[in-house]
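Note to self: the last two entries modelled the partners one at a time, which told us nothing about the interface. This time every component goes in together.
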Amino acid sequence: MLQYTIRRLLLIIPTMFFVALITFALAHSAPGSPFEKNINRPLPQSTIDRLNRLYNIDKPMPEQFVLFLGNAVKLDFGPSLIFDRQVVDMIGQGFPVSAQLGVQALLLSLAISLPLGVVSALKQNSAIDYGSLFFATVGYTIPSFVIAIFAIYIFAVNLRLLPIIGWGDLKHMILPTVILALGPAAVLMRITRASMLEAIRQDYVRTARSKGLREQVVIVSHVMKNAMIPVATIVGPVTAGLITGSFIIEQLFSVPGVGRLYVTSILGRDYPVIMATTLLYAFLIMIANITVDIVYGILDPRIKVGK
Amino acid sequence: MATVTTSAAQKRSIDANVLTRKQRSLWQDAWWRLRRNKAAMMGLGIIALAAFLAVFAPLIAPFDPTVQDTKVNNMDPFWVDSIYHNSRFPLGSDQLGRDILSRLIWSTRISLVVGLVPTLLVFTIGVTLGLLAGYLGGWIDNLLMRFTDIIYAFPDLLFVIIIMATLRNTWLGDIMGGLVLIFVALAVVNWVGLARLVRGQVLSLKEKEFVEAARATGVPTRRILIRHLFPNALAPVIVSLAFAIPGAMLAESVLSFIGIGIRPPTATWGVMINEGYTVFSQSPWPVLLPAICISLVMLAFTFLGDGLRDALDPRMKT
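The predicted structure of the combined assembly is written out below.
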């Protein structure tokens, strides 16, 4: 187990290297220098040369990449090309906001999906079951930005209950958190229901009932304990989805997090910010997946993760 | 005496059964199951309607989707319009005075093309490499698996966004208003998943007796791949493609919505939402109507995909 964990953690290094290489190569294949953008007020050639020297753009590509990697390891991504700030500071400011939004959404989606999934499996084909299946299909099918548009129309434009943009107090957090939570909640609910239904039909459940255990004990310690294993595995991809899904929601609701920073940097071709945010996202997703694989190995002794 | 007649009757009825029960292939069986699934057939109906609108867009759309007339902008659809009695635009007009109905119809065309073309590319690349890697193993397999590990670490949508953002202003990004670059970006990112799926199928299939028999009788590798392994691995591939098509359509909407997808003035649902969003609180319909279209098409494909999965492999039913 320990060996497996160490190997998975070490594999992060080459993967991050390739992610950096691909992003770097793509960013530098874009035509033109970032300093030639303003056509109405072109910079004098001497200034462009100086800027190119300052940002190492005059050096050959491989050398630039090595310089970039050397600095990135020290978490130094240089200054932004658009704002007069260090990239690390910008991310440092946005990250707590995004983390709060993401954690709130994850907790909310677990709080909705697990009870719904368990209840609809126990009362299969009842009104509750059909209701939550309908909710799951809608939440899983309709993209979050489309749901966001409908929600904004109903709650902000028509009923004027909630503000559309901004971040800070509870009122601002309701819409982004709920909408971000819907997709993951739908996926988790489907998985919970399916794996509960499968666990209920197992022989060990019949054995537990026939030896006279109370129904409550059977459900909680025999059915649910086993049904939660597949659910735990899906939390990893769901977390990854939350991380990448957040930038559309942050953009829509003007939440000052990393996601909005990412979209702004993409639109403004602010390459240092693009590089840093992409590496951050890739890192977070890898950590999420590794954590889940390890937890899975601990939860289910039948799985040999070391292989 | 009695026994003889019974057995004769039985024999007749067995004969009759043999005669009436036609042989059905896996595909006929699947189609029969799919047809009984109401949600899947409704999905298929919506998709058929969308395909019809897409093909005949120039004949159906009442206006040119890009012609502007600012004198008649921000018109409401007929069911809300009580002041202007706007009879020209059934679903109203956007802030540049373009007919929303026509723009919605033309968007269907772009959406379906974006759904189909990258999926065809993904199908070709993914199936070929998956078959080869799974059957031949060795260094090809190793290379594929290491490569897919890297792509897997990249969140799909982020990778597509980076490709779009960096290559938009090259010659590739200019062809057909950015459409071709979207095809390329989606294909580059999505073939990996399918290749892994096919590889997994082949790994379990190639140990089966029918493949061994084919090998033993000297069937060439190419023929084993195409005639024996491919058809047997096809069912999960079809299910995965049924979900890949709406996935690609959604990616286009998201990209166009954040402003790095299809270039305006070309009409797509994502572009329409992007353009209308700035004046959303004053005139919501230019945003709500394309949002409804996206929702309908996404629901249709999910119903069809779920139906296909249940029909092709009843064991997978959840």
